[in-house]
Specification:
- It contains 8 helices and no strands.
- It is an all-alpha fold.
- It has 2 domains: about 10-75; about 90-140.
- The relative contact order is 0.09.
- Pfam families: HTH_32.
- InterPro entries: Homeodomain-like_sf.
- It comes from Ktedonospora formicarum.
Length: about 170
């Protein structure tokens, strides 16, 4: 069982600063972090009680206690997370743009129109790189291409078709 951890009672200036952050932020995580410290420092609540209120686990609350004591209000900010390297290379983008400009049947595919998912599957077969249909949508958008649903148009070779249609 983890040993109990508590934070000292908050000073008036600390309460005002945390409350201003709590009331003013639109970032849900920062608001929750502020709430954890306010509940502990103002009301003397312990980690399990706070965890039940903010719907997290005891250890997360204890971690925020420790961070508060070490860094103060600056500790409410999330630390920057390193970005994962992108799977989508320049060559992949170029190949996707070339593929989408071709009819699927010309590339031996069993359908007549591209969808983002179909194109993602085709590109995975061709390149070995699997990306989501949303990622592929963004790649195509960068290239100025947006896939849309087909617009079905009813027409007739009859020269009087438009006149007859209006009747």
């Amino acid at each position: 069982m983890p040993r109990p951890i508590s934070i000292p009672t908050l000073k008036a200036g600390e309460v005002e600063a945390i409350d201003a952050l709590y009331q003013g932020t639109k970032d849900v995580r920062r608001r929750t972090h502020a709430q954890i410290i306010l509940l502990a420092g103002e009301q003397g609540m312990i980690a399990p009680e706070i965890a039940g209120i903010v719907r997290t686990d005891d250890q997360t609350v204890r971690n925020w206690f420790k961070r508060w004591m070490a860094e103060g209000i600056e500790g409410f900010k999330d630390r920057p997370m390193p970005d994962a390297p992108s799977k989508v290379t320049k060559a992949y983008k170029e190949q996707a743009l070339m593929a989408v400009r071709c009819r699927p049947r010309a590339l031996c595919q069993p359908y007549s129109m591209w969808t983002y998912q179909r194109l993602a599957d085709y590109m995975a077969e061709q390149t070995g790189i699997r990306v989501s249909s949303e990622t592929l949508r963004r790649v195509l958008l960068e290239g100025g291409i947006v896939l849309s649903r087909p617009q079905h148009k009813v027409s007739s070779p009859d020269p009087d078709y438009l006149l007859k249609k209006d009747d």
